[in-house]
Write a structure and sequence with these properties.
This protein is an alpha+beta fold. It folds into three domains: about 5-85, Uridine Diphospho-n-acetylenolpyruvylglucosamine Reductase, domain 2 (2-Layer Sandwich), CATH 3.30.43.10; about 95-205, Uridine Diphospho-n-acetylenolpyruvylglucosamine Reductase, domain 3, CATH 3.30.465.10; about 210-410, Vanillyl-alcohol Oxidase, Chain A, domain 3. The protein is built from twelve helices and 19 strands. It has helices at about 5-15, 25-30, 50-65, 110-115, 135-140, 150, 180-190, 220-235, 275-285, 325-335, 385-400, 425-440; strands at about 20, 45, 65-70, 85, 95, 100-105, 125, 160-165, 170-175, 195-200, 205, 210-215, 240-245, 260-270, 290, 295, 315-320, 345-350, 375-380. Strands 12, 13, 14, 15, 16, 17, 18 and 19 form an eight-stranded antiparallel beta sheet that branches. The protein has a five-stranded antiparallel beta sheet with strand order 5-6-10-8-9. Strands 1-2-4-3 form a four-stranded mixed beta sheet. The longest helix has 15 residues, at about 385-400. The protein is globular and about 65 Å long. The chain starts with a helix and ends in a 13-residue tail after the last helix. About 50% of the residues are buried. Bound molecules: flavin-adenine dinucleotide. Flavin-adenine dinucleotide binds next to α5 and β10.
């Protein structure tokens, strides 16, 4: 084990806010949300404020360690050996100025809390499908929102970033002060320092409507084709996601669903029920509707649309941009239902386009996405299953051939250790050169490198 005298000395001062291997609570504290990723950091810190962050930075430097910032660990991607894992829960401030359409959000805040703070304002933030994902890493890595077709990716909504850099300076950075740094932070922002808060733009929503329509697997083909057509015809104020899920035949699954296939179409509109009903009419007609939760919602209810799991779990996933037409959708379904696809529990395709395809509102490495879909596939991690799951992902990719791109959103890279799956090589070289200037010792370790 590496000797860490400076950290040990700091631990005497910080108590259980700095846990080293062997300390009670260390194992719980090092565990990320994605339980399939094993992390063994030199310590886990839960600093109370910026002074404690600076003290951690000094101790890490003295002991030859890095700092890896990770509020939750949905995006955990490596072992973290040689790094102090920093949890940011204490940075829990949320401040909303509805008149100016701006919010400041601390690094420990989850999207669910931001959405609650926006209740009754008539404004939306560019949140994704889950309430437990943290706002700061989401916008630092791109961030695909229900509202991205209307207003762009989460990263482009960032007006300013509050950052502690390796030189110990803690300050707000904006495009006026450092446009090159802001551009990199907007999509590849995990490795430049500790972001303690972000200032994000808020957007008006005329009338928010959303929910999901659930069908039995017997209707899979017609429903998914109708959803694909709905994505094509929907105005930019509407987002449609479609998925097919094979519920595992295991005791933990709800008895009524065990071993069944479920097809779900989720949709959100900022432009009222009439518009959304028009878009979804062919979907509703494509099969036997088993559940339909589409209804007017407050912004604080946004996460109920997808109703995603909120507890940590172990999973494998794969995601890439794609251009799906009816033939590609048939190929996708055939691959998923074929022998190799059997280990893949779920696939989902989200309709892109609109503001996602246009140049971002503010300069951002996350750029624009010309493809019309993002396709993702997932499986629960159980011992020994990974080779079969990876073969299933490969079978899907192969079936779609050139319709699948080699990029995805930075936030969809999951356990992939490099941003190479999200950005072009010249963009990454530019970000890496900037990182070397700001953090020449390489004191900060993001969850992805720029190689
Ligand atoms: C159920 C679920 C639903 C999701 N839905 C969406 C979606 O709709 N759209 C979408 O785009 N993504 C989505 N994601 C992906 C999610 O945005 C990423 O996993 C993202 O990494 C946030 O996860 P987290 O809050 O656990 O951050 P972590 O995994 O804890 O952090 C990710 C990385 O961000 C960097 N980082 C985090 N905080 C800081 C900081 N304060 N300073 C500097 N760097 C920092 C670090 O490099 C860190 O390793 C979803 C994920 C899950 C599990």
């Amino acid at each position: 084990m590496t000797s860490t005298p400076a950290l040990r000395a700091l631990a005497d001062r910080l108590g259980d806010r700095l846990l080293l291997p062997g300390d009670a609570g260390y194992d719980d504290a090092r565990t990320p949300w994605n339980l399939a990723v094993e992390q063994h950091p030199a310590a886990v810190a839960r600093p109370a404020d910026v002074d404690e962050l600076r003290a951690l930075l000094d101790a890490a430097r003295a002991d030859g360690l890095q700092l890896a910032i990770q509020p939750g660990g949905h995006g955990a991607s490596g072992s973290l050996e040689g790094a102090v894992l920093v949890r940011t829960a204490a940075f829990d401030g949320i401040w909303v100025d509805a008149a100016e359409r701006v919010a400041r959000v601390g690094a420990g805040v989850r999207w669910g809390e931001v959405l609650e703070a926006l209740e009754g304002t008539g404004l939306v933030a560019l949140a994704g499908s889950s309430r437990v994902v943290h706002t700061v890493p989401f916008v630092l890595a791109g961030g695909h929102s229900w509202f991205s077709r209307a207003f762009g990716l989460g990263s482009a909504s960032v007006r300013a970033v509050e950052l502690l850099t390796a030189d110990g300076r803690h300050r707000w950075v904006s495009d006026d002060d450092d446009p090159e740094l802001m551009r990199a932070l907007r999509g590849a922002g995990g490795a430049f320092g500790v972001v303690t808060a972000v200032e994000i733009e808020l957007f008006p929503a005329r009338e928010l409507v959303g929910g999901r329509i659930v069908f039995d697997g017997a209707d899979l083909g017609p429903v998914l084709h109708a959803a694909l057509a709905a994505q094509e015809s929907a105005p930019d104020t509407v987002a449609v996601h479609a998925s097919a899920l094979r519920v595992p035949d295991v005791e933990a699954a709800p008895p009524a669903l065990r071993g069944r296939t479920i097809v779900t179409v989720q949709a959100v509109s900022i432009d009222g029920a009439e518009v959304l009903d028009d878009v979804l009419a062919p979907v509703r007609a494509a099969g036997g509707v088993q559940l339909d939760t589409i209804a007017p919602i407050g912004i604080e209810q946004l996460a109920a649309v997808a109703d995603e799991p909120t507890d940590p779990s172990a999973g494998y996933s794969w995601a890439r941009f794609a251009d799906l037409g009816p033939a590609e959708l048939d190929a996708l379904i055939a691959a998923w239902q074929g022998p190799a696809g059997g280990a893949v529990m779920l696939f989902e395709f989200r309709g892109l386009g609109g503001a996602i395809a246009a140049p971002p509102a503010r300069p951002a490495i996350s750029g624009s996405v010309p493809q019309r879909h993002v396709l993702s596939a997932r499986a629960i991690a159980v011992p020994g299953i990974e080779p079969a799951v990876q073969a299933g992902f490969a079978a899907i990719r192969e079936a779609l051939g050139e319709a699948v791109a080699d990029r995805t959103f930075g936030t969809f890279l999951e356990a992939e250790p490099s941003y190479a799956g999200a950005y072009e090589a010249d963009e990454l070289a530019r970000a890496e050169s900037l990182r070397r200037t700001i953090d020449p010792e390489g004191r900060f370790r993001g969850n992805r490198d720029f190689g």
